[in-house]
Amino acid sequence: MYNRIVIAVDGSDEAKRAARRGLRLAQGFDATVDALSVVEQKALRLTETANEKAQLRERGEAALTEIEELASEFSQTVNTNLQEGKPAVRISEYADEQDVDLIVVGRQGLTGLSRRLLGGVTERILHRSDVSVLVISGEYNGDEVEADYSRVLITTDGSENAEVAIPQRFRMTGGSETRLSRSIRAQFH
Predict the structure, then answer these.
(1) Predicted model pTM
(2) How many distinct helices (H) and strands (E) make up the chain?
(3) What Å distances lie between residue 189 and 18, 83, 92, 183, 186, CA to CA?
(4) Reduced to 3 states, what is the DSSP secondary structure of residue 91?
(5) Measured between alpha carbons, how far is 69 from 45 in angstroms, rounded to an integer?
(6) 111 phi and psi angles, rounded to 5 deg
(7) 113-145, pLDDT tens digit by residue?
(8) Would you kindly state where each structural domain of the chain is located, as residue ranges?
């Protein structure tokens, strides 16, 4: 069961879709939701005026306001938090400090390159966080349908980290059909 979920947002369309999915999930578990936006430390250092810094902070506040409005559609309250720093570091630290059960992020944010499988911040969160991370693809298929977890494929390479995914899947979806696929490296001589 998830008791507390943090949704990391940056104002991108992918973050908004991830927030929608995270809010639905929180609703199903009656979980507390935190929305977190992090103003990039590097961007703040590159600003030349107080007005430019204020604009960066306002962009983060706007992203959080958007999530509050979205949460009201789900009759869900959300705690908002704007922080400064390296996004992946701050998101991971926040999750640890607040005893979060799940981090929800978009696959790519505002700085993501469409050619990459994952955005840089998302990839760094996956490598750094001890908290489970749910990555939501931002691919839009024409309509916002509810997530269907009735059939789930879990791939694993047998590593300790991969094995952690199996119990998480059951937390998220209950007793739906699951197929487990294990990959092994074949060595040919």
Answers:
(1) 0.78
(2) 7, 7
(3) 45, 53, 43, 19, 10
(4) helix
(5) 31
(6) -100, 5
(7) 444 445 678 888 988 888 888 888 765 554 554
(8) 4-146, 148-189
Q: DSSP letter for 8, please.
A: E
Per the CB < 8 A criterion, the answer to whether 38 and 83 are in contact is yes
pLDDT in tens, 29-41: 999 999 999 988 8
Name the residue type at position 95.
Answer: A
Cα separations in angstroms, 173 against 14, 64, 132: 22, 28, 15
How far apart (Å, rounded) are the C-alpha atoms in residues 91 and 88? 5
Tokens of 63: 């992203």
Tell me the per-residue pLDDT of 85-116, one tens digit each, with 9 for 90 and over: 999 999 999 999 999 999 999 886 545 444 44
Domain 4-146: CATH architecture, name and number where available: 3-Layer(aba) Sandwich (3.40)
Inter-residue contact 167 to 142 (CB < 8 Å) = no
